[in-house]
C-alpha cells in the first residue's frame, strides 16, 4: 500500500508518508491537474516528476475530499491548498514523499540516511548545537539527521527564504537515545520570532521530522 503512514497529530492536524511505487501515468490518471499545475509539472525533469506527483496524491488522500484541492504557491513560493483553512508542507527523499497539514504554521522533512552529513554539520548547526551532539558515532549520526530535518522543517514553516540555518534558527538539545521524540526550536529573524514544537521519528532508513508553531507570545510580531 503506497500510503504507508497516516495519522493525526496533536493538537490538530495530520501527517502522512507515501511510498513511491507507481509510474507517472498512475498519478496523472487520478490527479486531474489544473492548468497552473500542468504547466509546472511540464518543466520538471527526471525523478522530480514522480516526487511532485506523489506529494499531491498524498495530500489529497489525507484530506479525504472527493475533489482534489488545487495546490497553489504564495508570493514567497510556499505551497498552500486552495479553499482550505489548513496549512501544508511537503517533502520527498528517494522513494518516499511526506506531508503535514494543520491549522498552525507547519513544516516537514523526510531524509534518507546520508553518512557524509557529518562533513556538513558546521554549515547548518550553531556552536551550541554542535557542543550538545552525542559522542557515540551512531547516536551522533542520528542526531545530525534529526537536527538537519528540524532546520529544514523550520525553513519551510517560515516560508520566506533567506533564512540562515546557523544564525536564524536554533534547536534545543536532543535528550535521550530513543529513535523518536520531541525537541523545541525557534526562528528569529528581525521582527519575526516564533517558537516551534518539533517531532522526530525513525522510519526504516529515513528520518521524519515535522515542526508545528506554538501559540504566539504577546510580544511576537508577524
- CATH-defined topology of the largest domain: Ribosomal Protein L22, Chain A
Please bin the fraction of helical residues: 25-40%
**Which superfamily, in CATH terms, is the homologous superfamily of the largest domain?**
4'-phosphopantetheinyl transferase domain
Distance between the termini: 41 Å
**Unreliable segments (pLDDT under 50, ≥5 consecutive)?**
218-222
CATH uppermost class of the largest domain:
Alpha Beta
Taken in chain order, the helices and strands follow as: EEHHHEEEEEHHHEEEE
- Category from helices, strands and their pairing: alpha+beta
Total strand segments? 11
* Mean pLDDT across residues: 92
Globally, the shape reads: globular
CATH architectural category of the largest domain: Alpha-Beta Complex
Radius of gyration (CA) equals: 17 Å
Order of strands across the main sheet: 7-11-10-9-8
Counting H and I runs of at least 4 residues, what is the number of helices?
A: 6
Q: How many independent structural domains?
A: 2
Largest sheet: 5 strands, antiparallel
Strand content: 25-35%
